[in-house]
Structures are given as structure tokens and as C-alpha cells.
Amino acid sequence: MVIKNEDIRELVVEVPEGHKHLRAVFLLEDGTEVVFQEATIANLVRAYISLKTHPSKESVKLKRVKLAEKKEGYAEWQLLETEQSYT
Predict the structure, then answer these.
(1) Which of 9, 10, 8, 35 is nearest to 24 (CA)?
(2) Predicted pLDDT at 84
(3) What is the DSSP string of 19-59?
(4) Phi and psi angles of residue 42, each rounded to the nearest 5 degrees, phi first
(5) How far is CA 27 from the centre of its chain?
(6) In this structure, what is the dihedral angle of CA atoms 57, 63, 65, 70, given to the nearest 10 degrees?
(7) For residue range 33-66, what is the model confidence (pLDDT) as tens digits?
(8) Is 71 helix (H, G, I), strand (E, B) or coil?
(9) CB burial string 13-52: b at 16+ within 10 A, e below
(10) What is the pTM of this model?
(11) pLDDT-based confidence at residue 71 (cuts at 50, 70, 90)
């Protein structure tokens, strides 16, 4: 699925009532709603900045990993950069 600016009717980024973390809701022209949680947005931004600011990196690949041990407040599932990211 490729989502272009012209496909997005509205983008809402907010902390929903009763929650602590941001959500980004893409409301598409066809009525579809795509919701990203804060951790997913943070991973995308981190990968984007890493790629745009690195002098020779051509790609970034994040893979889903279930952590055996995690920091308090963090989800057990994380998107972590793989070694294959550098080309």
C-alpha cells in the first residue's frame, strides 16, 4: 500500500483521552483509518533521521523482536535495527 498526500483527508496526532502516549491517525479519502502508536512513530522518525543524516547509509531495516527482558514502561515487542541496514 502506498499512501500519498492526496490520499489523506486528515492526519490527527494527539494523546487520546485516558491514554499517556501519542497516536497518529491517518484518515484516508476512502474512509480507511490507519492508526500508529507512539512507539511506531518514534521508530519511523529514528530510522528516517538516521538515514537522512548519515553520509553513506542507503537503507535502514528495523525488525520486530520480542525482548526476554525489558525496561519498565517499555513494550516487550520492539523494532530494532538490523546489521543489514548499512549498504
Answers:
(1) 35
(2) 63
(3) -SS-EEEEEETTS-EEEEEHHHHHHHHHHHHHHHH-SS---
(4) -60, -40
(5) 17
(6) 40
(7) 999 999 999 999 999 999 999 999 899 999 999 9
(8) coil
(9) eeeeeeeeebbbebeeeeeeeeebeeeeeebeeebeeeee
(10) 0.80
(11) confident
Q: State the amino acid at position 10 in one-letter form.
A: E
Alpha-carbon span 14 to 38, nearest angstrom:
10
Name the nearest CA neighbour of 40 among 9, 62, 15.
62
Which residue carries 492508526 as its cell?
35
Grid coordinates given for 86: 548499512
> What does the block give as the cell for 36?
500508529
Q: Find out whether 7 and 20 touch, Cβ atoms under 8 Å.
A: no
